[in-house]
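Task: complex structure prediction.
Instruction: return structure tokens for all chains below.
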Amino acid sequence: MNWISRIIGGRSDTQALAPGIAETLAHWQSLPDTDLGRAHFETRYVVLNTEATGLDLDRDRLLAVGAIGIDGGLVSPQDSYYAPLDPAPALALSNLLTFVRKAPLVVFNAAFNLGMLEPVIEDRLGVSLDGQPIDLYFLLPALFSELHGSPVRLADWMSAFGIETFQRHHALGDGWAIAQLFLAAQARGLAQGAHSPRALLELERSYRQYRRKA
Amino acid sequence: MSATAAELLVGASTDFLTHFSPFNRMEPTALSYLAQHAVLAFHSRGSAILTPEMGVPRNFYIIQRGKVQARQTGAATVTEYASLSMGAGECFPIGAISAQRPSTNAYVAVEDTFCFQITAEEFLHLMQISPAFHLFCTQYIASLLNQSRQQLQTTFSQRAAEQQTMTTPLGQLLTREPTFVAPHTRTRDALEKMNELRIGCMVIADDKQRPLGILTQSDILPRIVLAGFDLERPIGEVMTANPHQLPATSSAYDAALEMATHGVRHLLVVDADLKLKGVISERDLFALQRISLRQIRAGIENAGDVSALQRASKDIRQLALNLIAQGIGAEQLTQFISALNDALTRRIIELALDRHDLLGIDFGWFAFGSEGRHEQTLSTDQDNGIIWRCPELQEVEAVRKRLLAFAREINESLAACGFPLCKGNIMASNPELCLTLDEWKERFGDWIREPDPQALLNASIFFDFRVLYGNERLGDQLRAWLNKLSRTSTNFLRMMAANALQVPPPLGRIRDFVVEDDGTIDLKKCGARLFVDAARIIALRTGVDSSSTVQRLRQASGKMGVAAEEVSAIIDGFHFIQLLRLRSQHLETEHDADGDNRIDPEKLNELDRRILKEAFRQARKLQLRLKLDYQL
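Output:
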């Protein structure tokens, strides 16, 4: 569950990194792990979202990444990141890591987003995001069963909360909607006694286990 | 790259804000400042966003989505709403954050709600950089002022209605404890008591306070004096037995009917156990009927002597109460009072002129101080003087002597009509204040040239002069001369300003108000006077002819290049303090105490307290202006 990062050994096909990027990575790797037991108001989460040519992990290609920090329960427009992969994918991704630091990640549909992002990061930077992200795809139905009892699409959650965004299917545009959903999730989690990232992760995990049994 | 991301999100916030007032009217730079600094937070249903207990608010909130309820938390519900629902685009708190004091409302999310927030510092900065936003906040505070005025009217119309309808229960009309004697009391003792208490009748009651009889003033002549009744004998032998009684629950109308039916002027009011509660007289019922402005005026103008004017003076007070009930603001109210007092004074002068031969003497009767400014409240003592021109071939001191005798009579008549003699002897009968035009110029000139503390104090009283009766041209000439002289006397004005700044508005750093040892604030000394003093200096500097504070500020605003809204806000603040003064005087005069301008802020309702603080802030603004102008 920790943000253990490592350089994948033996991957000789990893491109040689530009010196600036290598330094950035080294710095990022040296950052201490975030304490997942801290309360929401002491934690900076980062919503991570991707934009791809389509929804097929095998055939489609990552186009852009977007990220928004949620620090102490507040979303600030200044604490945000967006970059298309072209023309400098290594730079876009290493800057993303710098932005994220070792914050607990929040995504909507980890299978797709991280499935799209992780291979590219490993391929381009030779590092890996090894922590478990908070996946709102499962956490939201666990917390707001009165709205939707089972996992539904982002658009359904947005309409359930009346959340709008400036641009759909844009890494940052959807990220802005996800960030707002996460604010609501934090508050509901708190009301149910889940006051730390770890507690949210546990909620999500038990929801998945419960679904598997059902 | 990350700038692009921030720009996208700021753009989204901007887009949202431009759908709502006042943000859609905001200057582009101010709007972008707001959008850049606004951060988003979530408040789940039922959670408190801001409450008075949280102290001085640290954030200003704009609802992005959801619903927030503002609830009054004080003991009394003061605004027209007990609770107010707010939706997307609405923002809070405004008054609390501008004044940097705890909110008086509790703001609770009644739905899951998203709010943008900026810090208090950012809010204040936004007020500074955005005239549109500043105006919005000022107007919001002004609308609170309006609400308070409306609320004041409701209170008073209730009181007036209670007092003045003929359906009022008699029990509520009784103002004093019942006076009575036992039947075996010596008649002499009973009569002495009547005389001592100045009452029109004496009730005779048994040892359980149940009325047995009554003796009225009109019984005394036939039954006692003419009948040669022995005053040593008990009163029980001369009283009217079985007096007319009504239960305390019957109405004033019942009482009027009973009096008319039986031809009596007094009725005894008893409680359920038939115990005496008091006496209602015909006069008490008359007082219930409304007195109109026209009646009072006619009463004053036709008054043949001072005692008729005394009644008129009482009517003026009663009228003032009615006017507040009818919803008249402080400005009009003080003008009405001022107009009627002027009429009263003029009639007194006319009556005095009948007895004093002043033919050929050109004079004007001066009103100074609050009377000079048309800002009289109900308890004002006399501040007056005379300006005159000596007729040719007459000896100055001889004329002065005649004027002084004339003035003395007027001062005494005014005192008889409820305007106490001035303790500081600022009265026309004082030879120092009965001066020719040239003597006044000399006097004023001395003060301006040598502004010692006494001169400054004098200036603050006498420079607010106004000719109330007689030749107004004399006053105009003096005013024109004074404005010309003082405009060039920077040193004098500077010292006046320094003097005016000695009393700061009683605003506390920690608590809302700085109060005196007894927990009160003197609304005259620490409130109204701050406006009055500043306005006087501004008028002298800009050459405004008016002696009224409001007119001075209004007329000077153009010449000073101050925005009209800003001046309106200052004037509103001044009016509010005047209204509070009038109100406290009313409430107190009803208890037969002199209105003394003191209020206990703790006893004000939430809204009044809030606005009073706002009013004091306006005074501070005005003082700050003086400070800057004279670099004090």
